[in-house]
Amino acid sequence: MRRESGERMGIFTQSIEVDCTPAGVPIRMRWQGREYRLAAEPVRWFERRKWWKEELRAERGRGPGLVDYEVWQLQVKLAGVGPLRTFEVSCQIDTGRWRIIRMPEAYKESA
Amino acid sequence: MSFTHLHVSSAFSAHYGVSWPKDLVAAAIDDGADALAITDRDGLYGSVKHLKACIENGIDPIIGVDLALLEPSTGPAIHGKAKELRTVGRIIALAKGHSNGAGYAALCHLITAAHQLTTSTGVHKPNIGITREELATYVKAPNGEVLLTIMLGAGSDVGLATGHRQYNQARTLLRDWRSLLGVEALRVEITTHLSNPGEKLSTAHAIRMLRCAITVGIAPVLTNAVRYAEPDGAATADVLDSARALSSLSTLNDIQPNGQGWLKPAEHMHHLATEIARSAADTSLAPTLLRNTAALADWARLDPVPDTGWGNPVVPEPHIIGITTDPNTELAARSEAGITRLLPHETNNPLLRERLEAELSTIADLGFAPYFLTVAEVSSMITDMGIRSAARGSGASSLVNYLIGISQVNPLTHDLLFERFLSRDRATLPDIDIDVESARRHEIYRKIFDRFGAQRVSLMSMQNGYRARGAVRDAGTALGMEETDIDVIAKQLWRFSASSFRDALAEKPELAPFADRLGTEKQLDLLVDLTERLDRLPRHISMHPCGVILSDNTLRDRTPMEPSGITLPMSQFDKHDMDPMGMLKLDVLGVRMQSAITYSLAEIARIHPSAQAVATAGGHLSGKPASIPGYIQPNGAIDLALVPLDDEPTFELIRSTHTLGCFQIESPGQRELIGKLAPTEFNDLIIDISLFRPGPMKSNMVKPYLENRHGFAPEKYPHPSLAPALAETHGVTVFHEQVLRIFDVMTDCGLAKADVYRRLLGNPKAEPAVESLFRSKALRRGYSLAVIDEVWGTLSAFGSFGFCKAHGAAFAVPTYHSAWLKAHHPEAFLAGIWEHDPGMYPKRLLVAEARRMGIKILPLDINRSALGYKVEKLDGLLPPAQLPVVPRAVGAMPPGRYGIRLSLRGIRSVSEREVTRVAAGQPYDSIADVRARSGLTRTSLNHFAALGAFDSLQAGIGRGNRADLVEHLRAGSSKPVAQRHRPIPGQLSLPLGDIDLSTMLIGAEQTSLDEVVRTELDLMSLDVSAHLMESHATLLDALGVSRAQDLLAMRNGTEVLVAGVRVATQTPPMRGGRRVVFISVDDGTGCVDATFFHEAQQRCGPLLFSTRLLLIHGLTRRTGPRGISLQALDAWDLSAKSMLPAPGYLADPARARNQSFGSSALDPAAKRSAVSLAQRMAAEDLDTRGYLGA
């Protein structure tokens, strides 16, 4: 798939491709046409959504994904050698597409 | 791979848990679990349901509780008083299993202690909870055996400290716990909901707990602090968090961090263990966590029968009810004594002997003799208290019950079957219900506690779940909607469950304005969804209106108790929990009609002081020379039990359908049925009451019964062999007893088995098996397929509804008694009805009924009004201008001699204390005297004056009118007489005349009748001086409105306008078809019962449920010789004058028309009216307000 080029810090609406293990743990990602490898154990959490502000419906039986979404923090290096970069990514339940949530600067230099 | 969840809140954790126990168990089983815990907040509310689900599915139940932890607040103590307690977290306590009930009993006692208002040392508790010291007393047995394991998780004091990264404090707290309870009784609960790193319930939080546990040496276990079975429940949990905090979701502090508190499968839990261990950099911790969890689960697995007493009926010890011999021998002896007392001439009747023997041997086999003796004990205790009581329900089917004084009905005379009540095929404790005067119900409860000992007795509780209105309010609050907006919506919701909100929006015209806004206002869609999510979820428990649990002295080991509204302790279990937990429940129902009857009898005795006077007044004298009948005792008291059940004037009154106020037969549908059925004997009343049920209605029994009864159609029996069973109801199946006989006759199964089959009818899972059995056996016995088809059709439609004839017989007694009183002693009867308000209608309708009965309503009077409504002799013998509409017994006192004086009670904002003091101070000789001694506040004094309570005092002075006095009091000095001028108690005030009134300004215009009535409605919700509608008379005449009393003389299908005050609104349950709404209005001359079909509902919209004064356009529908109702076409709010139609509307070509009327060859009126009766019956069956007291 083709993506917009040009990254503007702070707003990340771009999509990203992530490959996972059979257990659903990310192992590598492709972004802006380049492949990144994991440089550390990925960390995950479930982040709350203010669904009552964002959603039109909250019907019973709707299933997971209304109240929270899973976020993976990936520490990666370009082709396994470049500088360490941190991505926070999430997979949309309905479409299966990944998107970038945040790219926290704070993680840039950490090991 | 397996995992046992040890921390699970069910929906019975009010405002916290989301999923029902059975759904949690189902989810666990889907994942292959072999055990599951339930740890509800504050109690065992869901535990019995959990036990049941676990037992049915063959997994081990584990039971615990989630309690608030209390400790003294920090800061200095004040004046040596104990420091106040505050909540510092929550803990979980799990009961030890396979301990012969010791663990479970400790859990019950712990919870009971948590609900006490003070600690054992007398310190006040701010909320439900337990102190560490209290906890320590329940955790171990005297021999040191650990009975409860305490889990400290993320919500505990330790967990809150680690959450705030106060590691030292966390370790100190945990060490304190260790020295208090020991390592054996403690676990640290490790939970991650994978919330944002570092936050509450994050993996980091779990690791801090884990490290703290390892440092202090307490075994860690893994849980998921579950609140819902599936991820889908998370949004519901959010709304519950909001409802608990009474705060909108946006402003909520205590919302769950995310939606991960679900019953995760074992695979997920193992994965979480690994994730935690890896993050803690010690992978060996994962197996440790899982092993510890499994070990604790094994320790807590319950063996339901020995541990909780599952399914084992427990009755009070024989010595408590004074029995020293074998209970079976005792029961037989008492039955024998009953024969001597009640049926002395039948001592050797073989039928009686055979029946008694069969009953006694069944009871002995089931071991229920102590149960019968216990109920007999309660029953005689109530009688000894001088309280009216009557056994009700299937208990009336037992001869033993009759002989030992529990029931008043001889089952042999009414042909009632014991098998319907009890048999060897039904081993649960049977229900015996006792109806008592509602006003004295709590007195009886206290007496039962005294008699059996508080350790054996408790009240039963009931769960109150969300219904549409409550759900929409809490959902609206969660979304942060304006309270006024929510209010508008909530008020429009009418009697349907929250789960059908969206369907209701599509169907119901009164919700149309709201439905139109859906989709345009974003929040409304969400509001509907959240309302549906809250549907039926438990909100709180309350005292069950009639259930009392009787047991032996181990009761408190088997159920937790909490305080009830009336200070007596209440079990946390509800009626569904009784049978499984082997608890004997006695329903002591407060029936207002019993209180009303008692009151009426007392009034009769008060106004007619001798037997002769009573007999004359009531028209009871009979024969020549006239003699006083046996049911009037020499002192004039009437013994209703001895009144013959064949009194013709009583049946005349019933057939007249003027039955407002009469038990069971006053509703619009019942009046219609009574009119069609025209009862002539007591058995007709039993049938009438039994017909008025969903079963006979659904199986289309009413119409054929009525046709056969009146000889319009020949009686028809599916097969001659069924004639004996069905003859009394002309071939139509009405009673459970008949269903039993049909099964027995056609399959030869025996009556006991027949009752088992009957109970399975209507159960979609079990019915097919009953059907195939019925068909094959009947076929083998030679019945034709056609007969079998027809009979099965009846049985199947009859379902498990229908009515047990014993119920009907028991119900019919107060029905007959109330009608008897209305016919013979109308004034006393009505006073009793006003006093206790037993029926379904607003009181003002029964006040209006006085006018139709020719009874004068006497206004409030400071000297003559008493604490209750009193029958009062009138001065002079003025007959009413016209004969009353409601018939009186021939020979009874003619109307015009007695009236009913309004009571001092029931006046707005006048307190009970004031009322009592006013009554104690009577008589008063002047307004000044009233002011000085009555203790009425200024407002109350004004209210009394406005209602004319001082008219008689004023009349003596001869100055001014009511308006003058009201003005005088309003303007005048507000202070009562200064203390030094008041007479000391016992001293009479000096007869100085009324200084107050002699200085009063006079000359105000006489208060208009209209205004008087409005004041009465405002202050008493009653229109006393005239009917509310009278003020509209001019308008109604201009519009050409017909009066209720005139409708009966009209032809069927006459187009009319009627008007009145709404007195009843009913909607039958919708079964696929379109809803029908019944609205009854009262116009002072009687009630008009109007039926609104779909088109009319569309025309009226929001008016249907919210308008009080209605003008209705419709067509008359004859429902019987004495009955007429209205098919509504349109309606208006009578108080919205500008919207009303113009005079001559009935000739307006643009008026609403009935589409189908007159357009078909069939007589649609007849068709509609049959439909209408059936629907009316359906509407009313759900309405038990008229029956249950409290």
TrEMBL record, chain B:
Top enzyme category: transferase
Catalytic activity: DNA(n) + a 2'-deoxyribonucleoside 5'-triphosphate = DNA(n+1) + diphosphate
Polymerase/histidinol phosphatase N-terminal domain sequence ranges: 4-71
UniProt KW DNA damage keyword: yes
E.C. number: 2.7.7.7
Key words of the record: Cytoplasm, DNA damage, DNA repair, DNA replication, DNA-directed DNA polymerase, Nucleotidyltransferase, Transferase
Matches recorded under Pfam families: DNA_pol3_alpha (PF07733), DNA_pol3_finger (PF17657), HHH_6 (PF14579), PHP (PF02811)
SMART domains in the record: POLIIIAc (SM00481)
Protein name as it appears in the record: DNA-directed DNA polymerase
Organism per entry: Paeniglutamicibacter terrestris
Lineage, top ranks: Bacteria, Bacillati, Actinomycetota, Actinomycetes, Micrococcales
